[in-house]
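FORM 7B: Structural annotation worksheet

SECTION A. Query
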Amino acid sequence: MSTFINIRFKKETARRFQEFSRRFFKTHTEALQTMLDFFFYNEISPKETLGPNARTLENNIKKRINSLISIIRDIEKHQTQPTTAMMQLLFEHTPQKNKQQNLKEKHQSKNSPKDDAFFTSAMEAIELQKQNTILKNDLFKTKEDLTFFIESVKTTKSGLGKSRLLLDMKLSDFESFKSNYKIE
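SECTION B. Predicted structure
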């Protein structure tokens, strides 16, 4: 048989404890034992706070996860474009897009968040590099054509007058050369 002992509490504290123990436990003794066990086994002091509760921690974690998701989606949408431009530089002979697609891309680029200074300067550098490669290719082709043209010119001497230049080239080759370098 268990024995009871009296403990003196202030009336207000005793009422709060009685309401609490009636709500969650069968007896006041069971309530007090459970509270003591909780503090003993968890090695915490009843005077210290446990910090944020589970709901606030859950909300903070959800906010951070949503933030990460939006960052990843932004990367998926916008960070692949410099890679695409670099691939196009490698394969310059890809077919050009039609004007409607270019207009759509320009319209979308105005609405999208590409205002990052690094991103725009990288895109400009890639575009300038592409133009530079195209110009180098054109210069190389022009030099080859000019060399062919100069090698086709022969000097002829006539007995009575000045020396003349003779173009030793097929008429069809000359016409195609002329149409390639038509001055506008």
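SECTION C. Observations
The radius of gyration is 43 Å. Residues 117-151 form the longest helix (35 residues).

SECTION D. Sign-off
Analyst initials: ____
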